[in-house]
């Protein structure tokens, strides 16, 4: 798991983070039919999330234009903490396997397995400092651009 996390961190451009507290994290791996790791999700317990503030979109004609705009702009979030349970510290899918709902399936699996006997709602999940891809994915998965984020400043607000 550590080796995969290192590879994912390199791909995400993260500095190598110190070892995480394993008892507080859950790692899900998505294994392809040919037995390769093509997806990885690392989740941790959190207490608070902060809602992304949606910027007003300029008049956008096509889906392509919307994606281009989303990729370029920075994101801002509220300073008001909202209770949350599960933080997605990292979510990654092998580049050749993207847009096949692998990330969506990993989150579904996370929601039913993060806490024994309970199925987390989308409102109880927050994303750590989302990348442009992560933001586009989270907006689609959560059904809103105002999803929860955490850890947006290195080390701050983490649990
Ligand atoms: N651009 C636009 N929409 C996107 C998108 C992208 N790059 N990635 C996901 N979506 C939206 C789409 O609406 C998609 O449904 P569709 O393909 O039917 O249109 C929906 O989210 C579900 O996407 P899914 O197939 O489940 O996501 P994925 O398996 O491709 O994984 C990431 C998404 C973000 C994990 C993947 O792009 C990735 O690993 N990126 C590099 C690492 C990274 O940035 N991780 C995010 C950290 S916060």
Automatic annotation (TrEMBL):
Top-level taxon: Eukaryota
InterPro entries cross-referenced by the UniProt entry: ESCO_Acetyltransf_dom (IPR028009)
Cellular-component GO terms for this entry: chromatin; nucleus
Alphabetized UniProt keyword annotations: Transferase
BP GO annotations: mitotic sister chromatid cohesion
GO molecular function: protein-lysine-acetyltransferase activity
Domain N-acetyltransferase ESCO acetyl-transferase, first and last residues per copy: 82-150
Protein name: N-acetyltransferase ESCO1
Taxon lineage: Eukaryota, Metazoa, Chordata, Craniata, Vertebrata
């Amino acid at each position: 798991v550590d080796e995969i996390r290192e590879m994912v961190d390199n791909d995400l451009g993260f500095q190598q983070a110190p070892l995480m507290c394993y008892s507080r994290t859950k790692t899900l791996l998505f294994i392809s039919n040919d037995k390769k790791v093509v997806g990885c999700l690392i989740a941790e317990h959190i207490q608070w999330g902060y809602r992304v503030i949606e910027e007003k979109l300029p008049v956008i004609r096509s889906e392509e234009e919307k994606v281009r705009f989303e990729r370029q702009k920075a994101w801002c979030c509220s300073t008001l903490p909202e209770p949350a349970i599960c933080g997605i510290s990292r979510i990654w899918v092998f580049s050749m396997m993207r847009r096949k709902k692998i990330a969506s399936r990993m989150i579904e699996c996370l929601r039913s397995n993060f806490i024994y006997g309970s199925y987390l709602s989308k409102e109880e999940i927050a994303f750590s400092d989302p990348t442009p891809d992560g933001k586009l994915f989270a907006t689609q998965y959560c059904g809103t651009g105002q999803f929860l984020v955490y850890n947006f400043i290195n080390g701050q607000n983490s649990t």
